[in-house]
Write a structure and sequence with these properties.
The protein is of the alpha+beta class and 182 residues long. Helices cover 37% and strands 10% of the residues.
Length: 182
C-alpha cells in the first residue's frame, strides 16, 4: 500500500468490480512505462482484456517530490491514438475549440482533488497546477484524456474522445475507439 492509502486491489469504476493483483499491475505498468513507477498508484481504467489504460497516481513520488500528474494514460493503444492527435496540432486545436472558462474550472478542480490526497503532515514541496501540471491552457492531451476516462469533468478530454470517435485514414474509415470501448 502506498503512502496515500492506495489499496492492494484496484477497481475499474466503469465495471464496479475489484480486481486483485497489485503486483500484476505494477509489472504491467512498468512494461507500459518502460521503467518502474516512482509513486504509488492504482489502475482506474482497464481495457477489454483487463490491462491498465489509466492509472491514478499518489500526489508525491516515493522520494517526496511532487507528482502533478494525478491521472496517467498508460495504455499503449490509447497513448498512440492520442499521440497522433497531438502530432497533428491537437493541443492548439483543443485550446481554440474548448471553452476557456470550463477548462479553468477543470484545472482548479483537478488541483483541489489532488491536494486533498496529500498527507496531512506533509510540509515539503507541493504539486502545482492543474491537469498535467499546468495552470492554464492545454499542455498534454494524454493527461486530459486520462482524467476524462477516469470520470473527470475534463472538457479537453471530452474533446479528445470526440476526435478519437471520428473516422481516420489509419483506421480504414472507421472510428478509433477509446481505451474503455470493446
Amino acid at each position: 500500500m502506498g503512502t496515500g492509502g492506495y489499496p492492494a486491489t484496484v477497481e475499474n469504476p466503469s465495471s464496479g468490480h475489484e480486481t486483485p493483483g497489485q503486483d500484476d499491475d505494477v509489472e504491467a505498468v512498468t512494461a507500459l512505462l518502460g521503467r518502474e513507477p516512482r509513486c504509488g498508484f492504482r489502475v482506474v481504467v482497464r481495457d477489454a482484456s483487463g490491462g491498465p489504460v489509466v492509472i491514478e497516481n499518489e500526489p508525491l513520488l516515493h522520494d517526496g517530490t511532487p507528482m502533478p500528474t494525478r491521472y496517467w494514460l498508460v495504455g499503449a493503444a490509447a497513448r498512440s491514438a492520442v499521440g497522433r492527435i497531438e502530432s497533428e496540432g491537437g493541443v492548439r486545436r483543443a485550446e481554440r475549440e474548448v471553452d476557456p472558462g470550463e477548462l479553468t474550472r477543470a484545472h482548479q478542480l483537478y488541483s483541489e482533488q489532488r491536494d486533498r490526497l496529500l498527507p496531512p503532515d506533509h510540509h515539503g514541496p507541493r504539486p502545482t497546477g492543474g491537469v498535467g501540471g499546468t495552470r492554464t491552457g492545454v499542455k498534454c492531451l494524454h493527461a486530459h484524456y486520462a482524467w476524462y476516462l477516469a470520470g473527470g469533468p475534463d472538457p479537453v478530454g471530452r474533446w479528445v474522445a470526440d476526435q478519437l470517435s471520428r473516422p481516420t485514414r489509419e483506421s480504414g474509415g472507421g472510428p478509433l475507439r477509446s481505451a474503455g470501448e470493446g
